[in-house]
UniProtKB/TrEMBL annotation:
One GO term (biological process): carbohydrate metabolic process
Pfam families (alphabetical): GDE_N_bis (PF14742), MGH1-like_GH (PF22422)
Protein name: Amylo-alpha-1,6-glucosidase
Residues annotated as domain Mannosylglycerate hydrolase MGH1-like glycoside hydrolase: 304-610
Domain Putative glycogen debranching enzyme N-terminal: from-to ranges: 28-222
Species lineage: Bacteria, Pseudomonadati, Myxococcota, Polyangia, Nannocystales
């Protein structure tokens, strides 16, 4: 089938054909390495557009991996990823061997256990073959492999006219090396090491001739190392590497808060979400940083990391410190139109790999997001409120000030008091809010909005940034700066309501276009004006009811766009789909205005969705079709799963339902009109850090409210409950 002509504004979007290998996929990530396998543990060779593979630093180092017994595939018994996301475990058995005639080895005689994990730029795999039959058997075990070294953007669907050169494979007794030199002059190598050495070696496969006595188990180990330039990962035995990988995860979570409840399903959701978040974390020189999502966005994104850190603040405040330091270190310090950069702007995306190095994509270090900069200030203020860590704020104050100055000097492109975006390079993103599809901003008649564009939720982020920046300025003794920022926030709030509120929508316009015409369409963007607090209190319930009306609320969550709008499409990326993180932010905003019935509807809908989700994992997004009895939400074909935003969804929802906020400067936890859905009779929170202390709590649902019991307290922490 001929591929349709590529829309110029769509050239970096992900092709739907990439979904063919994501259904039922198993995903691992560690550091700058991730892998997508099928349920059998294989990598199916679908060609350049198949998403499966072993990836490192923006390139695919393994594009095929196939396990066979006597040349035959193995029937699957089970396939799962451990609760902490460390190890992918597959159980299989032999088919009748040989097939088609009288078998010499009957099916189910041999058990094959396959375990694999990632550690330090390598995929480690252990195979265990056990003979449960009464007689000894001889069997050939074949492992086939290939490496195409495709850039991740090629896999997503971006076409290249030229590629680098593949080298002849290098074979030794126990290893095979596949290599490629890119057009960037960098050599990338896939080094496969086998233990024990196989009997037969070829450039694309190895063969073991195994003799298995009755009740005997044989082991074969495989390590696939990704090497870039002079890099050479350590050659570690399977057990040593696994121990180190588990120790790192424990290090990430040692200080974290833990949550359990009366609901096993909710506990599974929380457990998988926290494991996903920790898996997405990469250690950087600046600190811990959550990458955005696997497979397409396993790299630093500014907006994504900020929102993930905000959502996870009460569980892991250290993550916010790492995000702040990383983004401060990568803050723009000069004008660079090709990268959409101006002084003080926070980075949108950082990419490694051949295409980024060559400039074939603009995302090597790209600043084309309008919201990351105000959100950076919002995160800094939230981090200080939770932890009371004034030293880190003082360290980062120059970067916080530069971010605030960017808002004032560069954010408002036409002097109307609102922050807009308009790309400076044709190679950059057309739309630079969180809904960055080329068709995401439009008018009621469906026509695209022409820029510069002022998004409603971005004005809310700016409002919150000015309020938060004022608190931080006060902390550091600059009362004059604090007054200026508060005055700006109040002017913006009043002006925003005057210009953006649309009576006919019962909510806020999506945006103002370059001619200052409001985009009068019903979208979830307006809901995030509750999250930021820019919405006036008298508007809140009307907006909340609008968001939970049938045309917006599918039964699984709030759609990005109403079914009544011209561009509504439940299968689109941003024009009718449902994003869990978007719903969670809206829920937190509803809680701010004490609209707990609305919060619980969203919470229950997404909780119900986890019952249909493999591994209890909510994806990046799903389709916006109405809820049907007995069926789960419809999958979006190329959604990232796991994804950092989606992983933090239950944390935000629980915080919203409980009306929970932490004031580390005062050593206080506040619960405002706490509520829990019927499915949760009890929630326990342990090691909740509050400034220099921490506390353990049990919360019990009652017909009219929630009871709060202190199980343990270490340090000066008090509880304030407002009924």
């Amino acid at each position: 089938m001929t591929r349709p002509a590529e829309d110029e504004e769509d050239r970096f979007q992900i092709l739907a054909t990439a979904s063919l290998t994501l259904s039922g996929a198993r995903v691992l990530k560690q550091g700058d390495t991730f892998a997508v396998f099928d349920r059998f543990g294989d990598i199916r060779p679908w060609g350049v557009l198949g998403a499966q593979g072993l990836y490192h630093d923006g390139a695919r180092f393994l594009s095929a991996l196939r396990l066979r017994l006597e040349g035959q595939p193995l029937p699957l018994l089970s396939s799962t990823v451990s609760r902490d996301n460390t190890v992918f475990v597959v159980d299989m058995m032999n088919p009748d061997l040989p097939p088609g005639g009288e078998p010499v080895i009957h099916h189910g005689t041999l058990h094959v256990a396959r375990e694999k994990f990632l550690w330090q730029a390598a995929c480690h795999e252990r195979l265990r073959l056990t003979n449960y039959g009464p007689d000894p058997v001889d069997v050939d075990l074949e492992i086939a492999f290939a490496a195409d070294f495709a850039d991740v953007f090629e896999v997503r669907g971006t076409r290249r006219e030229r590629r680098g050169a593949l080298h002849s494979p290098e074979l030794s007794d126990s290893s095979v090396v596949l290599a490629y030199t890119g057009l960037d002059g960098v050599e990338r190598r896939t080094r496969l090491r086998f233990d024990p050495a196989p009997e037969v070696r070829a450039p694309d496969r190895v063969l073991y001739r195994l003799h298995l006595a009755s009740r005997v188990t044989r082991e074969v180990s495989l390590a696939v190392a990704c090497e870039v330039g002079d890099e050479r990962p350590a050659d570690l035995p399977y057990g040593v590497a696994l121990t180190q990988a588990i120790e790192l995860l424990h290090e990430f979570s040692a200080q974290d808060c833990s949550v359990d409840s009366s609901s096993e399903q909710f506990d599974d959701w929380i457990c998988r979400s926290l494991a996903d978040l920790r898996m997405m974390i990469t250690r950087t020189p600046a600190g811990l940083y959550p990458y955005a999502g696997v497979p397409w966005f396993s790299t630093p994104f500014g907006r994504d990391a900020i929102i993930a850190a905000l959502a996870a603040m009460w569980v892991s405040p250290d993550l916010a410190r790492g995000v702040l330091r990383f983004l401060a270190a990568s803050q723009a310090d000069r004008m660079d139109p090709a990268a959409d950069a101006e002084p003080g702007k926070i980075v949108h995306e950082i990419r490694g790999g051949e295409m980024a190095a060559l400039g074939e994509i603009p995302f090597k270090r790209y600043y084309g997001s309008v919201d990351a900069t105000p959100l950076f200030v919002v995160l800094a203020a939230a981090y200080h409120e939770h932890t009371g860590d004034g030293a880190t704020i003082a360290e980062l104050w120059p970067q916080i000030e530069r971010a605030l100055m960017w808002i004032e000097r560069y954010g408002d492109l036409d002097g109307d008091g609102f922050v807009e975006y308009g790309r400076r390079s044709e190679a950059g993103l057309l739309h630079q809010g969180w809904k960055d599809s080329h068709d995401a901003v439009f008018h009621a008649d469906g026509s695209p909005a022409e820029g510069p564009i002022a998004l409603c939720e971005v004005q809310g982020y700016v409002y919150a940034a000015c309020q938060g920046g004022a608190r931080l300025a006060e902390l550091l003794g600059d009362e004059g700066r604090a007054r200026i920022l508060r005055a700006r926030a109040e002017r913006l709030r009043a002006r925003f309501d005057e210009v953006f509120w649309c009576d006919e929508l019962d909510g806020y316009a999506l945006a103002l276009d370059g001619g200052k015409r409001p985009c009068c369409v019903r979208t979830s963007n307006a809901g995030q004006c509750l999250f930021s607090g820019i919405a006036l209190p008298e508007r809140a319930r009307r907006l909340a009811d609008r968001l939970l009306a049938d045309d917006m609320f599918s039964g699984w969550g709030i759609r990005t766009v109403s079914t009544r709008e011209r561009r509504y499409n439940p299968m689109s990326y941003h024009n009718g789909s449902i994003w869990p993180h978007d719903n969670a932010l809206i829920a937190l905003g509803l809680s701010r205005y004490n609209l707990k019935d609305h919060v619980l509807r969203i919470m229950e809908a997404l909780f119900d969705a986890t019952r249909f989700a493999e591994l209890s994992r909510l994806p990046e997004l799903f389709c916006g079709f109405p809820r049907r009895d007995g069926a789960g939400p419809t999958n979006y074909p190329v959604a990232c799963s796991p994804q950092a935003w989606a992983a933090t969804t239950p944390l935000l929802l629980l915080q919203a339902a409980l009306g929970m906020s932490v004031d580390g400067t005062e050593g206080r936890v506040r619960f405002v009109r706490s509520a829990l859905p019927p499915a949760l009779e009890r929630v326990s929170i342990r090691n909740l850090r509050v400034g220099t202390g921490n506390i353990d709590l049990a919360l019990h649902r009652h017909p009219e409210d929630v009871g709060i019991h202190i199980l343990g307290r270490r340090g000066p922490v008090e509880i304030v409950a407002i009924k």
